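Quick bug: DNA ligase-associated DEXH box helicase output formatted oddly.
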Amino acid sequence: MILEDFLVKTDEGYYCRYGKFFIDARMPVACNLISHAHGDHATSGHQRIYATAATLAFMRHKFPKMRSDSTHIVALQEAFLIGDVEITFIAAGHMLGSAQVLMKYQGVAYLYTGDFKLQLDPTCEPLKIVPADVLITESTFANPAIQHPEAEKEILQLKNRSSNIMLGCYILGKAQRLTALINTYLPECEVLVHHKMYAVHRLYEEFGPARLTYKLYNRKAMKEGPANKIYLVPPLTFNSYFKAKNVLKAFASGWERLQRQNDIELYISDHVDWKDLLHFIDKVQPRQVWTVHGDGRLLQRHFAERLLVRDILTANG
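Here's what came back:
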């Protein structure tokens, strides 16, 4: 029997009272499972943390005072118990070390996706699809109007440009994926990375499958030689250079609002779009779908009477 409150949304994060643990807690808790290292999912201060080796490496970089005795490295595909709940981390394909959390309790399988994507990404473990009775899925782009192009084709938007390019992107995950895409499909271009990205690139090379070619940014490199430089910068830096001259601006994202007022549109997302989300649901074959991280109403409408789709329950709500 499916327990409607097996995982609920609380102020602290997503809580499983049957195993007495949280997933992606936003404030310190006794026991927290972390799906991936992005700041809206990975926080410090917990008494016990379960995460993949890469996720913990990124967290130690961001939180150097994080206690090592509080962390437990979880290998993908290896089951372990917390209380009476059997837990397995499954590759999510979102970024290096990202994991879905498969929970089995009293014969029912609950799958929390975290953030995930189906598009291939040479810098991280590919998504693995497993069956589940309840799918607890992100719904960031759960809208039939949104369809992301293939990243391999989209990166070619940067080819044969007359000026160097300032490419805005997130420091962790997106920057490394873009570097790999540029290395592969635009080998004539030189990748320069912001100093905040440099250490993360090094960690990706240590823990990930891809070898990346890049240099630490310096002004001299941008000004000298041919106009074949692509400078990767984090969002704050990108926004601060809104009057930058002699450079083309682009921002890699699935959000249309982040493409406005740029010289080049670059729709590269690390989340599933509508089509991929439907394909994923079809393969998981759940009896129920609970939505998190977005708006699930269009998904509810799409499945109507065929499949129960609802928002995750809120504790005491």
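Actually, after a second look the formatting is fine. The domain at 8-145+271-311 is CATH 3.60.15.10 (Metallo-beta-lactamase; Chain A). Closing.
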